[in-house]
Specification:
The structure is a single chain. With about 220 residues, the chain is an alpha/beta fold. It is built from 7 helices and 9 strands; from the N terminus they run E-E-H-E-H-E-H-E-E-H-E-H-H-E-H-E. The strands form 2 sheets. The chain has a 7-stranded mixed sheet, sandwiched between helices. A two-stranded parallel sheet has the order 8-9. The chain starts with 5 loop residues before the first strand and ends in a 12-residue tail after the last strand.
Length: about 220
């Protein structure tokens, strides 16, 4: 592996086509599926140009381990954690490199609580990941892939349900808000949340094309 691959409790990140490859992504999926045990796995991420490639590879590995995969599409990273709890999934995977430049991408790992796996869990996962003889499911037990496009809206509704928000007062103010989505994973969630709060929203950089205007 190239030496720019970064691995930690939140997963792995590297430069696409160098340290971050489909082969690595598939192996991570297979290892995580073996680690996590039975149950569904949620997968989503940001719209980097390598999103579909790496998500497909991770999902293939998960299904090869016998795990059913629910693809929630392009979304903010916290949406994956919320979807895990809402759907009572076993865990989740985020395809994102967070603040890293566009040539990077990564694989974030979530436990059943919707949190990044703990240091203790990571040590167990790492030992599984480092094996070269991970078992594959036969045709009877291979996992299935489904999609669910409701996760972002579910996240928004969960935010709006928080008692700390006085939505009536916010709506009465009729704020005008400019939101820069940086063509990223929040391109739907941020403007829609603001609109539901009664704001007039001006969106800039709201195209999920993986071309981040500031390089990250």
């Amino acid at each position: 592996m190239a030496n720019d691959l970064v691995e930690s409790i939140s997963g792995a990140r590297g430069i696409v086509g160098k340290s971050m490859t489909p082969q690595l992504a598939m192996h991570y999926g297979l290892a995580f599926g073996s680690f996590i045990g039975g149950g569904r796995i949620i997968i989503g991420g940001d719209p980097r140009t390598s999103h579909d490639q790496l998500k497909s590879a991770v999902a293939s590995g998960l299904m090869a381990a016998g795990r059913d995969v629910v693809d929630i599409g392009i979304c903010p990273t916290p949406t994956i954690g919320i979807a895990i709890k809402e759907m009572k999934a076993r865990g989740g995977v985020g395809i994102t490199a967070s603040h890293n430049p566009v040539e990077w991408n990564g694989i974030k790992l979530f436990n059943r609580k919707g949190e990044f796996i703990s240091p203790e869990q990571y040590e167990v996962f790492r030992k599984i990941k480092d094996r070269s003889d991970l078992p594959l499911s036969n045709y009877r037990k291979v996992g299935r892939l489904t999609t669910d496009t409701s996760a972002v809206n579910g996240h928004i509704e969960r935010v709006l349900s928080q008692s700390i928000l006085n939505i009536r007062k916010i709506r009465r103010r009729k704020f005008k808000v400019v939101v820069d989505c940086v063509n990223g994973g929040g391109y739907i969630a941020a403007p829609e949340l603001l609109r539901k709060l009664g704001c007039r929203v001006v969106v800039i950089n709201g195209t999920p094309d993986g071309k981040f205007p500031r390089g990250a």
